[in-house]
Amino acid sequence: MMLSVGLVFLMMVKMGYPTYTFDAPLEQRDVFLGKRKPESVFRDTVIADKSLKTYDLEGVTISDEGLGREKEESSNIAFIKQDYIREHRGGSLMKSLEKLPGISTIGIGSGASKPLIRGLGFNQVMVVTNGIKHEGQQWGADHGLEVDQYAVDELVIVKGPASIRYGSDAIAGVVDIRDHSVPEKGEIGSTLSFGAKSNNGWLGTSVNTFGRMGHWYYDARVTYTDYGDFRVPADTVYVYDFGVSLDNNRVRNTAGREMDWTARIGYVSERFRNSISLSRVATKSGFFANAHGLEPRNVDEELHDQSGSDMLLPRQEVQHYKAIDRLSYRFANHLLEADVGFQFNKRKEWSQYVNHGFMPPNYPAELQAPSTLERAFDKKVYSLNLRDEWFLDRHQLQLGLSGELQKNEIGGWGFLIPGFTQRSIGFYALDKLKINKEWRVQAAARLDHSHIQIDSYQDWFPSTEEEVAGPEDYLFRAEETSRTFNSLVWSVGFNYVPGQWSFKGNVGTSFRVPIAKELAANGVNYHYYRFEKGDADLSPERSFQVDLGAAWEHEKWNVTFSPFFNYFSNYIYLNPSAEYDYLYGAGNQVFYYTQARVSRYGAELSLLHRINNSFEVQLQGEYVYSEQLNGDKKGYTLPFSPPPSLLANATYKPALDFGMGAPYLALDFRVTAKQQNIVPPEKITPGYRVVDLRMGGQFRVFKLPLKADIQVRNLLNTRYMSHTSFYRLINLPEQGRSINVSFQLEI
C-alpha cells in the first residue's frame, strides 16, 4: 500500500502532470529549492551545535529530511544537530540530551531512558520518528525508548503543549526525530561509528552507508551495543529498608545488549519526493535483581555476582519494527505531504514465578506460556498523516488530517493491564500571518475523535480454596469496556522581532486521552512493589497553557528566557491509598488512578557569552513548580518533578589546532537543588553538584576524516541520586565516574 501511493505520485509526474509556479515567499521558496542553507533562516530556536555559532531568533524549524520548509512557531523549540548528540553521547538517546534546559530523563539502568519535558513524561510526551508517532509500551517507567541513537541525524524538541499539530499525547511536548537528509547527486559514502564507556564496559558500533544515483538514493545502517552491570559509588543500598550489598559496586543484573538495523530507499525530483524505510530495534536487558518481584533477601546474589555481563532473571526483551512511507509533492503554492506507517512492538518481561493469594504454589504445566514469562505485550499500530501547506501572499495555511489504529494483545502469567483496540482521527487547521517584517501571528484549532475498546480478562486460576472450582470462581480482573472521546482545542500566538530583541507568546488549550492502563489496570506492578487499579470513568486530561519567550542577541551575548504556565482541570495521576491487597496484590499498597486540578509554572534561562574567538561561557537554568489544587493530595506536587538546576559550561576552542581540526575542551558543572517538594511515596532527594569534562577534535586517518570525542562523566565520582530516576525509590545512587569515548570515521 505504501509503495503504491508513492508510485501513483511518481507516474503522475512522469506522465506530464501540469506544471505550476511555486509562489511561496522568497525565503521559504529558496530554502525549499535548496538555494539557501536551512540554518540561515533559524530564529528563536536553540541550536545545540556550537560549531554553527548560530543563535538567531524568529520561531522557525526545518522540515523533514532537509527540505528546509519553514515552520514559524510561537512555542518554545530546541533544534539539536547530530554533532551535539555525538559530543554528549550517553547509553541512550535521551541520556545524550539531558543537559538541555527543560529536558530530564527517567533513567533505567545503562541502556534505556525516558524523556521528561518540564517535569512531564510517559504518555504526556510524544516521540515522533520520521513523521510517525512512535508507539511502544511507553506507559511504564521501566520501558525505554526504542530508538537507535546512532540513526538520529537531527531532532526538534517542542517544550510545552503541542496538541494542535501532533495530537493527544503531545500535551507536555514533543521529541521529533529525523533521519539523515537526502544525499547530493552522485554522492556515495559510509560512516563507521564506535563508542565505549568505562563504567559498565559499554561498547557500541554503528555502520552506515548511503548514496544517490540520479533521482534514486539509499541509506542503510546496522548498530550493535553491548554493556555490563553499571557501577555506583556505594557498596550497600537499602531496598525498602533491607540492606543489599553490591559486589564490587556493581548493580547486579543490569547488563544489556542492543541490535538495530535500518534500510531506506527513496526517489527525489524537483517537485516530488518519496522514501520508504524499514527498521528494527531489538534490546535485551536485565532488571536490578534486588528490586523486582522477589523480596531482596530471596535473590541468589552468589549466582548473579559470578559475572557482570550476564542477563539472568528478571529481564526484558523488546523488538520494535517500523515501516514508514513518506512522500511530498509541490505544485503552485501548495506543498502536499503524506506519512504512512506500520509499527509492531513485541515486549516480554521474564521473571521467576511468584505465587500470591489464590495463585497455585507451583506453575501449572498445562499452561501454554513458559513459567518464566511474567508479561508479554504485542502492539500493532497503523498510522496515516496528511498535510497540505498553502502559501498565500502573507498567509501560510496548513491543513492536516491524522488517523491511527492500535491493537495491543497481552500474555504471560502476570496481569497488570488488559488488551485493547484504539482508533483515533483528528483534523487541524493552522494559519500563520506575516503582518510586516517584525510581526507574525498565528491561530490554530484541532478536532479529535478517539474510541478505545478494552478487552475483558479472566484469571487463569480460581479464587477459591475449594478443590472443585466453578466458572464464577475465575475472577474477571477487567471487564469489557468501550469509551469514546471527543475534543476541540485551540491556540493563538505571536512573534515580534524588533532588531536584536525577539519576543513570542502562545496561549491555548490541549488534551490527552486516557490510556488503557489508567482506565483498566488491576494488578501488581513488581517494578514498584504496588498494586495498581484503573478507573474506567476517567475523562481526558485538559490543559490551558501560556508560553512566553524573550531573547536578546548583541555582539558576543545571547540571552533567552522562557517562562510558562499550565493549568490542568483534570490531571490524571496514580494516587497511593491506605489499602493493602493481600489476596491478589501480594500485600502491596494499593494505588488508584484518579484526577485532580493541577497548576504548574516555571521557566528556562540561558546566557551565553563569547569572550573571544576561542573561549565562551554559558549558564543554563531550569525551574518547575507543580501543585495539586484538590483531591486526596491537595497541596502536593506531581511525581517525578525535577528540582531546580543550573548548568555552567566553559568551552575552549584553541586557535592552534595541534594537528587536528576544530579542537575543543569543555567543562560542565551542574548544581541541582534539594527536592523536598514531593508526593508520597516519593522521598526527599538531597541536592548535589556534578562535574563533567569533554574534549575532542577532528583528525585524518589514511586521508579519511575522523571525529573523536572524549567525556569524563561524574569526574569526581560523586555519590548522588536523581529525583527522576527509576531507581530513586530504593535509594540507588547514579552511576559513578565513567570515561566515554566516541569516534566517527567518514569513508
What does this structure look like?
Helices cover 5% and strands 51% of the residues. With 747 residues, the chain is mainly beta. Strand 26 and strand 27 form a beta hairpin. The two termini are 36 Å apart.
Q: How many helix segments? A: 6
* Structural class computed from helices and strand pairing: mainly beta
- How much helix, percentage-wise, in residues? under 10%
Tell me what portion of residues adopts beta-strand conformation: over 45%
Compute the separation of the termini in Å.
36 Å
Please report the total strand number as a whole number.
Answer: 36
Main beta-sheet annotation: 22 strands, antiparallel, barrel
Radius of gyration: 26 Å
Which spans have pLDDT < 50 for at least 5 consecutive residues? 1-71
Described by the principal axes of the CA atoms, the overall outline is globular
Mean pLDDT metric = 88
Index terms:
six-stranded mixed beta sheet, mainly beta, 51% strand, globular, 747 residues, 22-stranded antiparallel β-barrel
Question: How are the SSEs placed, and which strands pair?
Answer:
Layout: H1 2-14, H2 26-32, E1 45-47, E2 76-81, H3 82-87, E3 103-108, E4 112-117, E5 125-129, E6 132-133, E7 154-159, H4 163-166, E8 173-178, E9 188-197, E10 202-213, E11 216-227, E12 236-239, E13 242-245, E14 256-268, E15 272-286, H5 301-304, E16 315-331, E17 334-350, E18 373-392, E19 395-411, E20 420-434, E21 439-454, E22 457-458, E23 476-478, E24 481-496, E25 501-512, H6 516-520, E26 522-525, E27 530-533, E28 541-554, E29 557-581, E30 588-610, E31 615-628, E32 645-652, E33 661-672, E34 688-701, E35 704-713, E36 738-746
Parallel strand pairs: 1-2, 5-8, 27-30
Antiparallel strand pairs: 2-7, 3-4, 5-6, 7-8, 9-10, 9-36, 10-11, 11-14, 12-13, 14-15, 15-16, 16-17, 17-18, 18-19, 19-20, 20-21, 21-24, 22-23, 24-25, 25-28, 26-27, 28-29, 29-30, 30-31, 31-32, 32-33, 33-34, 34-35, 35-36
